[in-house]
Amino acid sequence: MAVAALLLVGLGLWSMLRSRTGPEEENIRTVFVPAPPPPENVYDTLRSGETLAEVLDGRGFSPLEIHELIEVVRQYKNPRTFRPGVVVQLTGPPGGRAEQILLQLNEDSLLALEARVDGWESDVSTVPIRVDTLLLAGLIESSLWYADLSGEVDLLGEGEFQEYVYDLADVFAWKVDFTRDIRRGDAFRVAIERELRPDGTVRTRRFLSIELRNRGRVMSAIPFTRPDGSRHYFDVEGEALRGVFLRYPVPYRITSGFTNRRYHPVLKQYRAHRGTDYGAPYGTSVKATANGTVTRAGTWGGYGRMVEIRHTRGIVTRYAHLSSISAGIRIGTRVDQGLVIGRVGSTGLTSGPHLHYEFLQNGAYRNPSSINLPSAPALEDEYMTEFKIGRDVALELLSGVALPTPTSDPLGPAAAD
Fold this sequence. Notes:
By secondary structure, the protein is an alpha+beta fold. The chain has helices at residues 2-26, 52-58, 63-74, 160-171, 384-397; strands at residues 40-45, 87-92, 100-106, 109-116, 119-126, 130-139, 148-151, 187-196, 202-214, 217-225, 231-234, 254-256, 259-264, 269-273, 276-278, 285-287, 292-299, 305-310, 315-320, 322-325, 334-335, 340-344, 355-361, 364-366. Strands 12, 15, 17, 18, 19, 21, 23 and 24 form an eight-stranded antiparallel beta sheet that branches. A hairpin with a 2-residue loop joins strand 9 (202-214) and strand 10. The longest helix is centred in the N-terminal third of the chain and has 25 residues, at 2-26.
């Protein structure tokens, strides 16, 4: 009986508690709090004549905030040196002030700025790259620049092949005169290592191996890097391809050669032409044909803007009618073979853009096309074992693309580069 009584009391108590709490529980409602809107990305492109400060001002930053941001950017790059076309990404709440800014410092670096309580935090990141190997071949019909390409042509970017033409001409510049020696039916194949940015542009490029057929003769070019970091090309036997002097400072056709009598288009009279003119377009890179020291850099009479370089063996070279001279090129500057010293122009006594190149030895004008100069030394014996291993690997790469064969008339008339 006692147990039964206790059960009845317990049930009654539970019923009372339930009656008190029940209505309150029934009145509880679930409230949904909306999440904040996602951050909004806004993009601004720097226009001609516009500064970074003006872009920030247009996005609602106060003068004090702009000053703080500019000072942070200045730690990495002078804000006034940003060129038109630079994209600025601003991230923040819709309609509010940006809390994050992404700015491209150069083709390979991004500067990220993030707002903190005590100012702006900065971080520089490198644009990710990927490395690939490109196999190309070309059959020359009229010009090296317009070769009939085969291989992985679809992987080429706009204008990319033209850059390889310049490089290819540089490699064989001492063995082949690309302004005169190239013939219809000549061919080449190359293996190229590239570093590519996310947008597909090429960051760096270098030949891994090259094969060139010129007038029935097949030549190979294998790169080798010595311990001091110098990288040069050799044939399969380790003989150097480069000469003490390059054959030409620009890989373009000769428009006026070395002669004792030529009609001057500006002076309207016959006179000696003691140099070689190359019909290169305005702005083409001009390269030093050999190591030496700059003895003149500036404007000099009919030469216009020019550079003069003194080399060994009493040799002096001159590069005239330049549109500009490269930064750092001044009297006393040491230059290496292949260094870009200026750009083709039409300054001085000239009727149009071209490069006038002179070659003097012991004060006498010489014809660089006919003078006999030695090649650079062969690869040292101590590196030959390593070179041969790399050579075999490099040549094997070329097996992935065939050296084109002409269908008829393999020699044909001289191609006009």
